[in-house]
Design a protein that fits this description.
The complex is a heterodimer. By secondary structure, chain A is an all-alpha fold. Chain A is built from twelve helices and no strands. The longest helix of chain A is centred in the N-terminal third of the chain and has 30 residues, at 3-32. Chain B has two domains: 45-173, Orthogonal Bundle (Fumarate Reductase Iron-sulfur Protein, Chain B, domain 2), CATH 1.10.1060; 190-489, no CATH class. Helices cover 49% and strands 4% of the residues of chain B. Classes of the chains: A mainly alpha, B mainly alpha. The interface between A and B is large, with 60 and 71 residues. The structure holds protoporphyrin IX containing FE and iron/sulfur cluster (2 copies).
Chain lengths: 256, 496
């Protein structure tokens, strides 16, 4: 293994650590901070189950954003759907399925489920190009509309550009410059604890770019607005049930 | 009146072009030393205000999850940018909810996040300088804490929470707002916002009883401090003196009279409003709320009913149980507290009131949802009861009812422009402009359906519209209460 390979191994471990510790620390801070008062934006569900469903509606469909701005919803939803699909397709790699491939076997689930899932699964790996398109849509809106331009910092553009870099290099790898898939797998599996480290595929600069961008994203995650991934589940205006007359809510610091 | 110009009434709500600094010169008066120390704050800006402000911010971050989460997770998506009535009315970009939050968030980043400490320029982090403090004072007093932005935010980020925290920080370093702080001081010593002493209150109620007797020939009572009454009515003190509020108070009295409910007002808790909410100060809010508990105990009542007032209903409905409960000494068959509209609606449904809606035939009525009722409370036992119950009453007491554009009602309602502690003369310019969206929607139904009465259940809305409608060349009598209509329609003594 040459020093450059070691650099990428080190990068992966650093990114993993920063992400896990940073995000974990933030989750802990949110968890330990109390809600002294009941403040759901009403009308709100009156039960805990109803409130959970409300949060699910936000996380799965971006319902409030849909009411707020259709264009942002459209591009934003497309982008997140693409991210979800990409995460899924990367997650099955350990099962022996290549990221862009489609040879996952669902027949064990029975013919009915197989017929349902098979075409959806096959379709997902053609969705790749939608990701950069969605990100460009969001970038364009941010830069063109005077109101969003006014509220945007360098960091807001940078994160979108980072995602564009990740998505763009991913799509290019699939459709234009396919890397040496075996070497990539070898390297990535070598990152798992317990596996011997494998050299980085230095002959595939596009992959190295893709990889470096993803690691960068993981490292900025806990210090950026990407925290919304966890925060959406902590927002009291959405996750509190509206039951203050029925249940007395008390918080230690506020009940003297 | 001369130098304040209302936007033109076209019936449309247009999103204005961004106009930097458009409302930068509108600011409230600063509270003087006596007002500040009276309610527990430093008398004037302390020497080490910067360090103290950061310390206070840290303290609030550890006490309010809302603040911590909201400051962490905004993605600057822009969904809220065109939702605030003050932005729509002024075009000042710092009145876009996310930009208002950024005034605080930029300082949060600088002192509490690694990004802000090391690469402030990239992430929009700012030192807390005197200019920033001045900006806080201006723009956190251009937020009526109406929560409209929260409705459209993918994470429910509520700018009201941010502006309450900012005001709390400013108060804690000695830079408070005169209007709100003066009122809070009056409640602590006298019991109500207007500073009406016991004697004057008793006189007023007596006069109202005489007037009611003259006009109806029935002995409608407005009892004060009656021990052993069933219901303690706590209502905004504006109901005692201001027009059109007082008509509503007579309306409540007639409802209680006709339903045979024994009730009383309290001179100790002669105020439903709780400006502690507006300044984000838990201790003051709690202290004011505790007066209601004390009055309920002293008078030995069984139920608590709250009059028509938006933020008062928020504090009562959402917080009273926390701030002043538990209420185990009251009659458990009734929710604590109840809104007067819940009481009246229930009586109407049970056929306990005889109503003659033709008494309101000179009116074509529409209903203005007040922000705190709409987005921070409930009535009845189902979500959305806060919309159905007041409308149910209006439809029962008036024959002609028209809805405004649904984009501007229910949880999407627009603030009157005077909420959140901004109902003060030096902010009149802002108040007139902030009322623009509601006035446009009203204008549309005035033109299309001949609406000439906008019913509201909020003392601030009533005062605000009474003041600003003339700037739009709309008669001030167009605004009124729901119980004012009830008062007109109720047929007294008809039960026997
Ligand atoms: C629980 C999962 C997630 C939820 C519920 C969620 C939700 C949202 C919502 C509602 C928005 C605002 C609308 C928009 O601009 O699209 C947003 C923005 C954003 N999200 Fe997520 N997200 C999630 C996960 C992620 C992940 C995993 C990433 C990237 C790694 C991500 C990156 C972004 C970015 C960059 C923006 C800002 C877009 C812009 O600048 O316009 N999100 N997210
Ligand atoms: S709470 Fe209301 S006034 Fe304040 S920023 Fe949001 S929309 Fe504007
Ligand atoms: S809608 Fe919410 S997340 Fe989007 S910019 Fe406004 S406050 Fe931030």
């Amino acid at each position: 293994m040459n020093p450059i390979s070691w650099f990428f191994v080190g990068l992966a471990y650093a990114a993993g650590a920063v992400f896990a510790l940073g995000f974990g620390w933030k989750l802990w801070i949110w968890l330990r901070t109390p809600n002294p008062l009941i403040i759901p934006t009403t009308p709100a569900p009156t039960t805990a189950g109803g409130a959970a469903a409300r949060v699910a509606g936000e996380a799965l469909f971006f319902k409030s954003l849909f009411r707020g701005n259709r264009w942002t919803w459209f591009f934003g939803y497309l982008m997140h759907l693409s991210i979800a699909v990409a995460l899924m397709r990367h997650a099955v790699v350990p099962l022996g399925v290549p990221v862009g491939g489609s040879d996952l076997d669902f027949t064990a689930l029975g013919p009915a489920l197989n017929d349902l899932i098979r075409p959806i699964w096959d379709a997902t790996f053609r969705l790749g190009p939608l990701f950069p398109i969605a990100v460009i849509g969001l970038l364009a809106r941010r830069a063109w509309v005077a109101r969003t331009r006014y509220i945007s910092y360098a960091a807001d553009y940078a994160i979108l550009l980072l995602l564009l870099g990740i998505g763009g290099s991913g799509v290019l790898m699939k459709y234009v410059w396919e890397p040496d898939v075996d070497a990539v797998h070898h390297f990535v599996f070598g990152l798992n604890p317990g596996h011997p480290f494998a050299p980085a595929p230095l002959g595939d600069p596009l992959f190295l770019f893709h990889f470096t961008m993803v690691m960068t994203l993981m490292m900025v995650f806990p210090f950026s607005k990407l925290l919304h991934v966890g925060g959406i589940f902590f927002s009291p205006t959405r996750n509190q049930p509206d039951n203050p007359r029925e249940v007395r809510h008390v918080t230690p610091w506020a009940s003297r | 009146m001369a130098d304040i110009k209302a936007p033109e009434l076209t019936g449309r709500i247009d999103v204005p072009a961004v106009s930097e600094g458009a409302s930068a010169e509108i600011r409230p008066h600063v509270a003087g030393e006596a007002l500040m120390t009276k309610i527990g704050f430093p008398g004037k800006l302390v020497d080490d205000w910067q360090a103290r402000a950061i310390e206070k911010m840290g303290d609030l971050l550890s006490k309010y999850r809302s603040l911590q989460v909201f400051l962490d997770i905004c993605v600057q998506c822009g969904s809220c940018t065109d939702k605030c009535h003050y932005f729509l009315g002024t075009g000042d970009p710092k009145n876009m909810p996310v930009a208002r939050q950024e005034l605080l968030r930029s300082v949060y980043r600088r002192y509490f996040t690694p990004g802000g400490k090391y690469v402030p320029g990239w992430v929009g982090a700012r030192d807390l300088t005197e200019d920033v403090l001045k900006e806080w004072f201006v723009y956190f007093h251009q937020c009526s804490q109406c929560r409209r932005c929260s409705v459209f935010c993918p994470y429910g980020i509520d700018t009201a929470e941010i502006s309450m925290a900012a005001r709390e920080i400013m108060d804690s370093i000695g830079m408070g707002q005169k209007y709100s702080n003066e009122i809070i001081g009056k409640v602590h010593t006298i019991g109500n916002n207007l500073g009406i002493p016991d004697r004057a209150l008793a006189d007023t109620l007596e006069t109202l009883e005489e007037e009611a007797k003259e006009s109806t020939n029935v002995d409608v009572k407005l009892p004060l401090n009656v021990k052993g009454a069933d219901v303690l009515l706590v209502t905004p003190s504006a109901d005692f003196f201001s027009e059109p509020h007082v008509e509503g108070l007579v309306g409540y009295a007639k409802v209680f009279h006709q339903a045979g409910i024994s009730w009383t007002l309290s001179s100790y808790a002669s105020e439903a409003a709780n400006f502690g909410l507006f300044i984000g100060n838990y201790d003051n809010m709690r202290k004011i709320a505790q007066r209601i508990r004390q009055a309920a105990i002293d008078l030995g009542v069984k139920r608590i009913v709250i009059g028509e007032c938006g933020h008062a209903w928020r504090v009562a409905y959402s917080f009273l149980n926390t701030l002043a409960g538990p209420w185990d000494f009251l009659d458990s068959r009734y929710p604590v507290p109840q809104h007067v509209c819940e009481v009246t609606y229930d009586l109407i449904n049970r056929g306990a009131l005889k109503l003659d809606p033709t008494a309101n035939d000179q009116y074509t009525v529409t209903f203005h949802d007040s922000c705190n009722v709409a987005r921070a409370s409930r009535m009845g036992d189902r979500p959305g009861g806060q919309f159905e119950i007041p409308r149910g009453i209006v439809k029962a007491v008036a024959n002609k009812f028209v809805e405004m554009d649904p984009e501007t009602t229910r949880d999407r309602t627009f603030c009157c422009g005077g909420g959140g502690g901004l109902l003060t003369d030096e902010l009149l310019d802002l108040r007139v402009k902030g009322a623009m969206p509601r006035m446009q929607a009203l204008k549309r139904v005035m033109d299309s359906d001949g609406v000439n009465y906008m019913a509201s259940i909020c003392a601030i809305c009533k005062a605000q519209f009474t003041k600003i409608m003339p700037y739009y060349k709309v008669p001030r009598e167009t605004i009124g209460g729901v119980h004012q209509l009830v008062s007109n329609a109720i047929v007294l003594g008809a039960k026997e």
